[in-house]
Design brief:
heterodimer; A: 602 residues; mainly alpha; Cytochrome C Oxidase, Chain A; two-stranded antiparallel ribbon; 17 helices; B: 228 residues; Four Helix Bundle (Hemerythrin (Met), subunit A); 75% helix; 0% strand; elongated; disordered N terminus
Amino acid sequence: MASITTGSKAHHDDHGHGSHHGHDDSYLTPKSSLWATIVDWATTVDHKKIGVMYLFTILFMFFIGGVAAILVRLELFEPTRTIVDAAGATSIKGHLLGSVFQGGSVALDQANNTYNRVFTLHGLVMVFLVIVPSVPASLGNFLIPLMLGAKDVAFPRLNLLSWYIYVLGSLFAIASALAGGVDTGWTFYTPYSTSTEEGHWRVLFMIGAAFILGFSSILTGLNFVVTVHKLRAPGMGWFDMPLFIWGMYGTAIIQVLATPVIGITLLLLIFERVFHIGIFDPRMGGDPVLFQHFFWFYSHPVVYVMILPGMACISEMIAVFCRKKVFGYRAVAFSSLAIAGISFIVWGHHMFTSQGELSAVIFSALTFLVALPSAVKVFNWIGTLYGASIDLKTPMLYALGFLFLFSIGGLTGLFLGALSTDLHLHDTYFVVAHFHYVMMGSTLIAFVGALHMYWPKMFGKMYNEFWGKTGFWLVFLGFNLTFFPQFIMGAHGMPRRYASYVDEFTIYHQLSTVGSLVLLVGFLVHLGNFIHSLLAGPKAPPNPWGALTLDWTDTASPPITHNFHHEPVVTHGPYDFDDVVPPQTNPVDFPISAAPGKGKAH
Amino acid sequence: MATLPADKDLLAASAPPHERYRAAEHFRDRDHEFDAVKLGVWLFLATEVLLFSGLFVFYGIMRMLYPEAFIHGSSLLDWRIGLLNTIVLLYSSYTVADSVRCAQTNDQAGLRRNILITFFCGLAFLIIKFGFEYGPKYADGKLPGAFYSYPNAVSEYEPLWWGLYWGATGIHASHVIIGMGLFIWLYIRSLKGHFGPKHYNAVEGVGLYWHIVDIVWIFLFPLLYLIH
């Protein structure tokens, strides 16, 4: 394998046809002036720049959604209730949001209303603007062509368009939030969502934002499917692809096939609000449960759009930091497709209480089916850990954290998939805790871990390992402190979406709020670590972890504008650590393990 | 790398643009790019089918619940106008398919003629739709939901039928309008000689899109106009 020299630093502004000037520059090399650099980024079709732009916009949205989450937790530190004092005067107690935003003197209705808007904002931002695009649009865009040995994704201009559509959708959502927000919950259930605040544009804007963001998601998914099919490097068959690609491929298929359904659903919801066509309005003969079917036909598969990319990252982290071939490569690869397929036939488990008994039984049985491929992955990852010399760097800590949290999140999902327990647990904090363990404890944990792993590749700088690990422990402990008590109070009957509660739940809510603040500190530690890395971090070598995928073996850190000096040819599997000395490393750092009896590639 | 010199250097500058066309640099050659574009367009068509599938579910469920409203609503549509529009769209599907063939055989005049005919078929579809259907129905008050004011309903659920009629045909008509915009773009590019036997990605892609617009209508026409 050729060793890659760092690019020449000479200035070249000519990128015309046939010119090879500037090809050795890092993709981050600025243009001659600040304005030229801004124009270059705003009009770029380079998948790496688009991935980085997505990364920072998503992290900004994560900040907004996180602030809303902290506000929700602070509000719940004490139950909101009306107090009548000895003289007969009434006042509101325990209403933080009201005292901050409305000067303290509000009625209980207003207090609850404010709370509804804040948790709706949190849900909408985190689902549509953060978790759905998180890994695919940022790391996926950056890494898929690099891992496949391609120069770009199949349709670079559509890729840029998808980012602009994402920004447009977020502007709609922000405009709606600034105008007072919506109180529908992130699911927009009818008939409430079609009748609340009759005629006000901010509800339409929020629905419109979700509609617009769908197009961004479709374009990303479409691009990835075609890229994986058509742009693999010579020598890379389907089963030579890194498992990251398999996860992203499953994700992309769901994005393409499920998102149009939410498109028509939200369009009909907009028609319903504007023209009162009646489809979801029982007064006109319409059916609100039909909306739930339409909504979950998209939104359940999209749960796997959220988790599959997290699983994709975990496969890479575990293989590289265990220095071992992933146990059961094909099982892990096919389980991604199985999850994608099964995800389309389990939507009814969100509606156990609003549909007939027979269909509830069928959906319950199908729901157990989807646990199988997820469990296949977890057991294969654990099988990979067995006997490995594990390097506990920050990404590996995150991978282990994922295994722990995803197991809790997944197994509690089975409680909810069983009809009899679900009747007791539905609409309680048990559900809230379950999906936070999966979406935040799994997807976002994997995202943050993968961000640490790929940070040196993306920006050419190392992060500080001590602060990375410190941040991990704060996030991990803070997360469990926030959400584990919610399982308990949910099982004891605390319903979701209420600002007030009876006194016996106070201790759980207070533990949860304290946990959320620890979590906040953990993320701020990571933020500080990343900013320090960009400003003063040591220069990253091209392959700091000794990995064997093309993104590490055949590109510089950060990669040159055209990714590769020559089209790479794949000569070994992505995880053949027993046979191949990692290119672009000092062989002393990554000796081939001497374990006998390990097979060769294929 | 794999881009052959024949793709870029060996042709004189006087050769028409479609012969000088080079694939984008992340593709090996024009065939590689053509395959990728075609797969992308087919995936996009799948999203279109799923988009309209929501409307077909709407039709199926509401017709099952309120058959009398749907039968009476359907009887108020003139199937002859629907048939005329079906013929117009079917003919345009032929011309758009022929335009792909013209590009493949380098028949530049035929390519431009077929693109123009397809564009005008789209226009004719909209004129018939707005002039003979939307206009009179708007005047009669056969409108969706809350705007419904037609006095001779036989079922209280007829506003639902009109909500479906306007929603489904409206979304379909918006696709026709988008298609007409694409044909203007194709026509301008065909005047510049952008399409020929070795490069007709855009003609093929827009053609496939136009077929899906046509097929959706082929399902809407019997469901809305013919079934009693």
